[in-house]
Design a protein that fits this description.
The protein is of the alpha+beta class. The protein has one domain. Helix content is 24%, strand content 41%. The chain has 4 helices and 7 strands, in the order ββββαββαβαα. Strands 2-1-4-3 form a 4-stranded antiparallel beta sheet. A 3-stranded antiparallel beta sheet has the order 6-5-7, covered by helices on one side. The radius of gyration is 20 Å and the shape is globular. The mean pLDDT is 91.
Length: 155
């Protein structure tokens, strides 16, 4: 199967918490339209209670069989990229990046990873729309019919 990718940059944040069980939380906050020259782990901004970091460049893999899902994402009114973080010790690791809303929803249902839908940059939206236009094949819905022989034998 043919696979295509769009390289994006990922920005994550460390937020300070005021609870008795945890002192900080990591979460994905942005996708960049291209990977900047910065090294992964570069601090981008510090404000009261939050620091943002460039997590690195990641490949947004696109599959021709998923074009209907990408089209749904683009038509949603808020096209998004789903980013999943996994903690390895004290460090967050980006484990998955996807533009498929159904895959993103499935990742959010799991445990052990932090999944956020972040706004998709306009340049990535244009490239994704071009991919959909190139590879999408409309598949007609075919309703299955019951097997009548199986129903009669049950009586």
């Amino acid at each position: 199967m043919s696979e295509h990718t769009i390289e994006i940059g990922v920005v994550i944040a460390r937020r300070q918490l005021k609870g008795p069980w945890a002192t900080q939380a990591w979460l994905p906050v942005a996708a960049l339209p291209a990977a900047p020259e910065a090294q992964a782990g570069t601090r981008l901004r510090t404000s009261e209670g939050e620091e943002t970091f460039y997590a690195g460049a990641y490949a947004l893999a696109l599959h021709p069989g998923d074009t209907a899902h990408y089209r749904d994402n683009l038509a949603s009114g808020r096209p998004s990229v789903w980013i999943a973080l996994r903690m390895e010790g004290e460090s967050p690791i980006v484990s998955t990046v996807t533009a498929d809303p159904y895959e993103g929803e499935a990742m959010a249902g799991g445990t052990g990873e932090i999944v956020e839908a972040v706004p998709m940059p306009e340049d990535v939206q244009r490239r994704l729309a071009a991919f959909v236009a190139q590879f999408h094949v409309e598949r007609p819905f075919i309703k299955r019919k019951r097997d009548k022989a199986g129903r009669d034998s049950a009586r």
